[in-house]
Amino acid sequence: MMVLFLGPLTQLAVESPRGLFHDVKAGLNCQSWSKRVKDLKWLRNHVVAPLTEEFVFRACIIPMLVPCTGPTSAIFISPLFFGVAHFHHIIEQLRFGQDTVFDILICAGHLVGPVLCHSFCNRMGFPAIGSVLEHPQKSLILLFYQLGVLLFFILLFPFTDPTFYVQSW
Prior knowledge:
mainly alpha; globular
């Protein structure tokens, strides 16, 4: 999933005044983490929401959809329910004046992996493509956006094939 965010990650690296590695190192120190775990909004967005949402949508929605649609359709339909369940984020963004309605609407198995992935996606948010189009290094950043999307689709089926994860003892 992270490969899909190559463009936004590249933009963060380009815009980081002290360098991306400094920012990552600063984010991993104990003081930074002790502040975060005391912040209820951070805990909701990066711990509680990913855990509960992944559990609910994987454990409840898929089994209800499979008898009606079959397994393949259920896999592709369940994200629609997931998206509708996140409309409250639009209201939150509007309430705090983070974006315009137009910007918001344009952007709008094993649990450990999906929960970490979900937390990462919550942290990154939807890519702000509009800001890239006005960026001084837009060619480089757009190249990585395209590379990320391409790699995501190339790697999607091989990395989601159950035989890839079978352990042979």
